[in-house]
Amino acid sequence: MVNTVFKPVAYFAITLLLVLTASRLALAIWLLPKIGGWAEFSGLMFWGFRLDVQVIGLFSFLLVAITIIMAHGRATTPWRTIFRVLVTLIVPAAIMLELATPSFLLEYGVRPNRLFYEYLDSPKEVGGMLLSSRLPMVIVALAVLTASVYLVWRVSYRWVGDSHWHKADWLIAPAVLVLCFAGARGTADHRPLNPASAAITSNAMLNDLPMSSIYSLTYAAWRAGDESSVALSYGKITDNEALQRVRKTSGISASRFVDNNSTQHLQVATGKHGKAKNYVLILMESLGAEFVGSLGGLPLTPEMDSLAKEGLNFTNLYATGTRSVRGIEATITGYLPSPARAVIKLPNAQQNFYTIANTFIDAGYHSQFIYGGNAHFDNMRVGNDSDEILQNVP
Q: pTM of the predicted model, to two decimals?
């Protein structure tokens, strides 16, 4: 290879490309029954290569910029250290995310994304869950992380070696920067390459396959800033037209709406009032109907099946999302999921926000919210109007 100060960047790019390509190939083989033939397989690998070049271009641009600024004179030694630290952060992180991908795919049907990093806000709960249910996976992950950090740190020493700035590097530098920028953009079209470009199948899981997990995670973090414009996810119609469509398709008589500018309507109870009853809502995380006997699943929940015979048992309800917080917002607040964050996590939901506890309190009930862990998890404590909030209850 040409003796240039940018040679370590090339070594980094090749190494990361090999890691990401090998992982994608392994995932594609694992998901082969879902892939519709050679054309689809080769298309996924082709778009995967392009998206890998994009993310490698971004990281390489940073490394090249640092090299241009620092790889001179007395700053050369600090540059070598900074370069090695950055490379030792990026490559092992990419390896760890790829190792976490199969489990995440099975759980959510997509690569690690925003859901992955949001749970970092609750390390105690997430850590406890991983240690109790996935201890072998945690041990393997820590072993791989330790080994990859050690190996990359050692190998990167050979990359930088005695690298230093040559006069010819002044001529090469502009071309290297342009190359990194072109790779990061991914295309000559007016819009940069993005995950939608690689959505070549009708299967959402396979459409995530061309991305690397470090790409999907950083892309999700970058797009999180677009929440204020979540309305852009929908078509362009006036508020009044949207209101009229909802009212028309609801099947509710116009006379039952509280006014002409709302979808709120009155529904008078027809049942007779008897002795006030105690109400208990049980929210069970990751408990699908296939595990509940009274819902047609396996007979694994005898106590819940017993309660189903004594109380009200709703057998025609469906999940509104794949996360606990989506079930909480639907059950406790009545909100449907949207492209934005769950409503109980939004700033304006922290006070003067409706929850089902309001209704019971207005009816004279004493309400309790009881949780087995820390009630700050998924903002369950904040904005909760229950009279009592009990947490860490065994």
A: 0.64
